[in-house]
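Please fill in the sequence for the structure shown.

STRUCTURE ENCODING:
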């Protein structure tokens, strides 16, 4: 009877990956509309998400704003150490090396999650998980097209890129701990309020405000900013955090690797990017990992 919650949790996480996969549409849109820099896009995205999650928490449970003083470091870790850290590292890595290499380093997150889950949560490292992990990571490599173009790689860029993967993975670890003590709405609200506040210190706010005020299509820009926050942050993180209540962290991290597959398909459909044989194989690898993790037969009764 306890299989249905896991299946629904897996579906929530896959849906979160689908929404995250649409990020490129909004990044390109805000760049062309107002000339936002990458870190400015991060700032408006986190700010919209923080306000939205704060409103949701206030409606659902106003008392959810109460947290124990001892848990403040946990939420600082979620907001600054995970969300803000990984996005800052990711966009910095994109500037230092090719997009494909930066994306691959970001998607080392399932490896970090699996290792940290084994260390802190004592999750079993099964053969199924290792096979699914290898398939999903190989899929990310193939989807990115790495090896088909120029890849300018340096040591600093690799370390920063690995930092993005670690920060990305930390959300699953710290989020799992936080969900043992607080509701989904409290966790997401405080995570994004903390991350948005931190983003103000790494984003040039006067320049951001100037770009908004001088934009010729201000109403459309503001609507697009709102949609960016809702579609790429509020909805997927809410889905992912709800999924974490039913699915272990290492499994969730692998399921979320559906994101690069979705991004590839969106690129083909909206931006007329062609799909190579390697991309097709990558999509199949990611789908195989998801099917493998959700195959009922690999869960044998305990003896």
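FILLED IN BY: designer on duty
SEQUENCE:
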């Amino acid at each position: 009877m306890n299989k249905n919650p896991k299946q629904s949790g897996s579906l929530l996480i896959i849906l979160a990956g689908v929404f995250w996969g649409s990020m490129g549409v909004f990044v390109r849109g805000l760049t062309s509309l107002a000339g936002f820099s990458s870190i400015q896009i991060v700032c408006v995205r986190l700010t919209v998400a923080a306000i939205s999650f704060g409103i949701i928490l206030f409606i659902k449970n106003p008392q959810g704003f109460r947290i124990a003083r001892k848990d403040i470091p946990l939420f600082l870790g979620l907001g600054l150490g995970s969300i803000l850290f990984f996005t800052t590292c990711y966009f910095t890595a994109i500037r230092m090396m090719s997009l494909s290499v930066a994306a691959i380093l970001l998607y080392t997150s399932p490896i970090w999650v699996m290792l940290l889950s084994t260390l802190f949560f004592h999750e079993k490292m099964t053969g199924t998980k290792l096979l699914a992990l290898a398939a999903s990571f190989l899929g990310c490599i193939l989807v990115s097209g790495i090896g088909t173009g120029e890849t300018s790689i340096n040591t600093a860029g690799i370390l920063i890129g690995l930092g993005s993967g670690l920060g990305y993975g930390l959300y699953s670890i710290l989020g799992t701990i936080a969900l043992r003590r607080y509701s989904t709405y409290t966790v997401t609200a405080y995570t994004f309020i903390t991350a948005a506040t931190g983003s103000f210190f790494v984003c040039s706010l006067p320049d951001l405000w100037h770009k908004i005020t001088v934009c010729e299509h201000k109403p459309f820009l503001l609507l697009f900013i709102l949609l960016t926050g809702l579609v790429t942050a509020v909805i997927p993180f809410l889905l992912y955090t709800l999924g974490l209540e039913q699915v272990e962290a290492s499994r969730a991290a692998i399921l979320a690797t559906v994101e690069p597959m979705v991004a590839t398909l969106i690129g083909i459909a909206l931006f007329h990017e062609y799909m190579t044989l390697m991309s097709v194989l990558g999509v199949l690898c990611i789908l195989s990992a998801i099917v493998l993790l959700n195959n009922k037969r690999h869960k044998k009764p305990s003896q």
